[in-house]
Amino acid sequence: MNQKILVLGIGNVLYADEGIGVHLLQYLQQKYRFDGPHQLDFVDGGTLAHALIPLIAPYDQLLVIDTVHSTEGQIGNVYFFDFDKVPHHIDFQGSAHEVEMLQTLNMMEMVGDRPPTHILGVIPEVLEAMSFELSDRVVNAVALMEQAFVDHLASQGIRATQISDPDIRAVARCACEQETFDEVAV
């Protein structure tokens, strides 16, 4: 049966590593073409959290890309897990948007609207306001995050074919320049 799969990048691109969910989402879209029996949609969720509920609810599966916090991990560690089986050392205390996203997913679960959900996250280093640069440790984690993403899609019957070789820092800079331009233009 064909399914609708949502890949949701979460984060604030104006806070350095906190934007990795959004940046990785754009990076993956630039790097790969995706083919398979399922509809695969990519959405930059920014920091919207609760406002995303009507967008998320119609999907059969959800994959969230974001930062995470671990009481046992180190900066740059990558985690991929089923939201229904969050490892005991993972919490969502890194930023306000993470807590709001956790609340959003829990609210959706309470009313039966949350699709099966996986989280792909990395422990951030830099969460400074108005810093557009990703830290070296988070940049170094991108290859592992990318592989976890591609492997998960393969398990769903979706093939990722590389079509370009973008640089994650260039993708992040471009997104941040656009974000700054949009704010000035308003």
Q: Topology of this structure?
A:
Blueprint: E1 4-10, H1 20-31, E2 32-35, E3 39-46, H2 53-56, E4 61-67, E5 69-70, E6 78-82, E7 90-91, H3 96-110, E8 117-122, H4 136-155, E9 159-162, H5 168-185
Parallel strand pairs: 1-3, 1-4, 4-8
Antiparallel strand pairs: 2-9, 5-7, 6-8
User: Terminal Cα separation, in Å?
Assistant: 44 Å
- In the CATH scheme, the class would be Alpha Beta
CATH architecture, by name, is: 3-Layer(aba) Sandwich
> Strand-and-helix sequence, N→C?
EHEEHEEEEHEHEH
Please count the helical segments.
5
The structural class is: alpha/beta
Biggest sheet strand order reads 3-1-4-8-6
Shape: globular
CA radius of gyration is 16 Å
Mean pLDDT: 89
Number of domains: 1
> Proportion of β residues?
15-25%
Report the CATH superfamily.
HybD-like
Instruction: Work out the helicity level.
Output: 25-40%
CATH topology: Rossmann fold
How many β-strand runs?
9
Residue windows where pLDDT falls under 50 for at least 5 positions: 180-186
Major sheet description: 5 strands, mixed
